[in-house]
Design goal:
It comes from marine sediment metagenome. This is Autotransporter outer membrane beta-barrel domain-containing protein. The radius of gyration is 16 Å and the shape is globular. A nine-stranded parallel sheet has the order 1-4-7-10-13-16-19-22-25, with no helix packed on it. Strands 2-5-8-11-14-17-20-23 form an eight-stranded parallel sheet, with no helix packed on it. Strands 3-6-9-12-15-18-21-24 form an eight-stranded parallel sheet, with no helix packed on it. It is about 0% helix and about 60% strand. It is mainly beta. The protein has one domain. It is built from no helices and 25 strands.
Length: about 220
């Protein structure tokens, strides 16, 4: 299935007492496009939920918003992709990229990828952000994109892999608290060509985890 919410004043609000969550790719394939000032709001958001499912969400253009009053999962037991481009904005409490897997084969490795690209493109996590939380997660912040969270975890828990790239002038990832690169999992952080990452304190390779941080380029 595919849904497009296009243009200023175009809104899709999911509310009600029972299950006001939004699933994009729920036991199947789903696509959601929020463009040119469109707006979507719900409680929890799930992109690519359950085994063999795939989901993709694009939030493109100034004024285009996706508001999650709860957590956002990109690749939750399935495969998920989130693109925030050209001034689009996404907000939620906790964020998960590549959430959960197991060794039995019933749930294959979850994979998630988020791209925040371009000036004005913003992803706001009012709580913690997990890139690879028992799954495989990738976060790309490029060309002036902005991401914020309380604490950041790249490669969280055993068997997980996470990679974050912050590339280009104006591209930032701001953590108001701690940052773990390889928190019992495998984590990689690339800060290149003037990108910037900030946090109160950081750990590289915590517990049984392994972490690599690369800072390269002027700026």
């Amino acid at each position: 299935g595919e849904v497009t919410v296009d243009g200023s004043g175009s809104t899709w609000t999911i509310s009600g007492y029972h299950h006001p969550e939004l699933y994009v790719g729920y036991y199947g394939q789903g696509t959601l496009n929020i463009t040119n000032g469109g707006a979507v709001s719900n409680t929890h958001g799930n992109i690519g939920f359950w085994a063999s499912s795939t989901g993709e969400v694009t939030v493109d253009g100034s004024g285009s918003t996706w508001t999650n009053s709860g957590s956002l999962y990109v690749g939750s037991y399935g495969q998920g992709t989130l693109n925030i481009t050209d001034g689009g904005t996404v907000s939620n409490t906790k964020g998960y990229i590549g959430y959960h897997s197991d060794s039995t084969g019933y749930w294959p490795d979850s994979t998630g990828e988020v791209t925040v690209d371009g000036s004005g493109s913003t992803w706001t996590n009012s709580d913690d952000l997990y890139v690879g939380d028992e799954g495989q997660g990738t976060l790309n912040i490029t060309n002036g994109g902005v991401v914020s969270s309380t604490s950041g975890y790249i490669g969280d828990d055993s068997g997980s892999t996470g990679e974050v790239t912050v590339d280009g002038s104006g591209s930032t990832w701001t953590n108001s608290d701690r940052l773990y690169v390889g928190n019992y999992g495998q984590g990689t952080l690339n800060i290149t060509n003037g990108g910037a990452v900030s946090n109160t304190y950081g750990r590289i390779g915590y517990g049984s985890g392994s972490g690599v941080v690369t800072v390269d380029g002027s700026g």
